TrEMBL record, chain B:
UniProt cross-references to InterPro entries, sorted A to Z: Maln_transptMadL
A Pfam match: MadL
NCBIfam families, sorted: malonate_madL
Membrane-spanning ranges: 34-51, 63-81, 93-112
The protein's name: Malonate transporter MadL
Key words of the record: Membrane, Transmembrane, Transmembrane helix
Taxonomy, superkingdom: Bacteria
Length: 255, 133
């Protein structure tokens, strides 16, 4: 009876439950950050890691695709962490952005977008080759998946890839996004990711929106708007180039 | 009023996403072309325009700042709904491809930072000249 009532309340008040759950998670994370790492590892980095860990547990226990959201008790997380509020909050971070910093990094930012899509694609194609894929369609689709998990299936569908290759390309994109979220705070100091300029470049190179949003949030929330601004164009450029230029080049090289 | 800030943010977000959708249709890409980025630029320019004309009430600012501050919790909720299990199920090929792509992206940040700087330094004298004029 208690479980039933609890489940009814958390589903009817989904977003409120999510606020409570995330709030407690953040509190625990910031406490751990202060106690165990003396603040060296950002509390938000620990919270994001917890989120991913719980998403894994949720995915394994339910067999679903949306992490914790597939547990009915926690479905409200889907609203709070969904695309609508994510985009709304990302847009809000632009409030107070330094326009001069943005202008100064503009050119490098545009360049980083194309370099980012190109190098991620090449990385994906190289790994696909190493794992024995030889046809241009599969190579292009897996390469596009390494760009983002949206570019992969969009490209695959356009050029007629098999569903097995499509699934692989989505998985590659997911791994990229997850590694970006977890690893960015650790590598930030080595790649000079501590100012708006490098954040703009980082956004263009990494591109996958959840990875950039999570990675920068875990590193330094002040950098978020700069990275997310360039990253906003990344998936579209990938979707534009994947089934066209990148496919034609791949087909020309690998037949 | 706080709602003015929230409404300003909403209008910027909706307009940006809408323009992104239209751009996608025009280019023929099944994706939103820079929607959030356009929304961010709109907010930057609108808020600085309003600021210059001295009409930005602190309460209005709070309506935007709340959502900016709630960004991290939203990202944590976003992390909690990633298909982590699916990513790992993709096997070594998927994991390696994802890792390699992100490793290259990390490594290129300092490289591109230098590339842009040279151009910035080159344009600096021009800026000085225009100031002197």
């Amino acid at each position: 009876m208690i479980i039933e009532s609890l489940s009814k309340v958390t589903q009817a008040y989904g977003m409120i439950s999510a606020f409570a759950l995330i709030g407690v998670t953040m509190w625990v994370s910031y406490w751990l950050s202060a106690k165990l790492t003396k603040g060296r590892l950002h509390g938000s980095a620990i919270a994001i890691f917890f989120g991913l860990l719980l998403a894994y547990i949720g995915g394994v226990t339910t067999g679903g695709q949306k992490g914790l959201v597939d547990i009915p008790l926690l479905s409200g997380l889907g609203i709070l962490g969904g695309a609508m509020l994510r985009d709304f909050a990302i847009a809000a971070t632009a409030f107070g952005v330094n326009v001069d910093e943005l202008k100064e990094a503009g050119l490098a930012g545009v360049l980083s977008l194309f370099v980012g899509v190109g190098t991620s694609f090449i990385a994906g194609v190289a790994v696909a080759l190493a794992f024995g894929y030889t046809d241009a369609v599969s190579l292009t689709t897996i390469g596009a998946g390494a760009v983002t998990y949206i570019v992969g299936p969009v490209t695959g569908a356009a050029i007629g890839a098999s569903s097995e290759v499509m699934a692989l390309s989505i998985a590659a994109g997911l791994v990229k996004a997850i590694v970006a979220m977890v690893a960015t705070p650790f590598v930030a100091r080595y790649i000079g990711l501590d100012n708006p300029r490098t954040a703009v470049i980082f956004g263009g190179l990494v591109g996958t929106s959840s990875g950039v949003a999570g990675g920068l949030a875990a590193t330094d929330p002040k950098l978020v708007p700069y990275g997310c601004l360039t990253a906003a164009f990344y998936t579209a450029i990938g979707c534009l180039l994947g089934p066209s230029l990148l496919f034609l080049v791949t087909r020309a090289i690998f037949g | 009023m706080i709602i003015y800030g929230v409404a300003l943010l909403s209008i910027c977000t909706l307009t940006g996403i809408f323009i992104g959708e239209v751009l996608g249709k025009l280019i023929g890409v099944p994706a939103n072309v820079g929607g959030v980025g356009i929304a961010m630029l709109m907010l930057i320019f609108l808020s600085s325009w309003i600021g210059k004309h001295g009409k930005f009430h602190p309460k209005t600012e709070q309506g935007v700042e709340f959502w900016s501050a709630i960004y991290i919790p939203i990202v944590v909720a976003m992390a909690a709904q990633q298909n982590v299990a699916g990513a790992l199920k993709g096997g070594p090929a998927a994991i390696l491809a994802g890792f390699l792509a992100i490793a290259i992206a990390f490594a290129l940040v300092p490289v591109l930072n230098k590339v842009g700087r040279k151009k910035a330094v080159a344009s600096a004298p021009n800026q000085l000249a225009s100031v002197q004029r």
